[in-house]
Amino acid sequence: MSPKRLGGCFMNKKTIMAMPIICFWAVIAACVVGIIIGSFRDYEINVALANKTDIGSFFATYGSYFSYGLYPAAGACLYSGFRRKGGGYLLLARLLLILGWFLAVYYSNSYNGKAVRALFGYTAGESSPGLSVLSWLFWAVLYCWIPFVVIRLVDDKDPDKLIAVGAAILVAGVVADNINLWLKQVGSRPRYKYLITLQDPKSEFRNWWQMIPNLAGNDDNFKSWPSGNMTIASMMFSLPMLTDVMKKRSLKKNTIAFVLACVFVVVYGYNRIHMTNHFLSDVCFGVLITYLVYSLISTAFLRRKG
Fold this sequence. Notes:
Largest sheet: 2 strands, antiparallel
Number of strands: 4
Structural class: mainly alpha
Order of helices and strands: EEEEHHHHHHHHHHHHH
């Protein structure tokens, strides 16, 4: 099939998240191979690689910033698209812009807020509530610059495509996160960091398919499968969709964005094993689930723009 010119860049007609379909199958294949290997060697891999470090802890806490930054970027796409439509859409545009920023702040504070509150010296029940507010403002400021930059860079000549891309990133992110939370309860798999506190860790180890639904409850020690952090990290695979709505877009830039996403996901996956939080199969399932969710939703939203 010959390539066609799409919005300023040459793309093959069959694309998923602004990348040729071969990239989709490459990610799927890598996840499946990882799951197969992990199904036989999960425990041994963790014994060999697990080793908590300060730099690993830092990356685990702040590495998700790059993924969550896609939420305010998506909000900016929605804002630019609806603003271009004019009329009665301006209020909606502003609300969606704020929603994208809020989601990034909310998720960052929910998943990584404890570390930041500790950084500000906050101790629940002892410290001033103002310190807790200050730690929240830390995230608020950290994400506020992204919408302004994206609004200046996006091409608003095709507002429908901007709206589709922004909506796909926001909706898929929320859907993938909730699917992951549900599956953690379904699997209730013990984490490696919990197992190594036991006298006989190997005896309590369970493979991902040995599920005990609802055993986890609120106990984080039994929420190993699938990896929630990989759900977050895999949002980066939507980065080529953002570069594809920029003013100076090209297949080369989309490819660079995809490669950066791959590197980020691999490093993040290694970090989850290294920091004793997950097994290899947890990591690969987390990527696979999120990647499929993003692929399906973005394809559905963008199919009329292909």
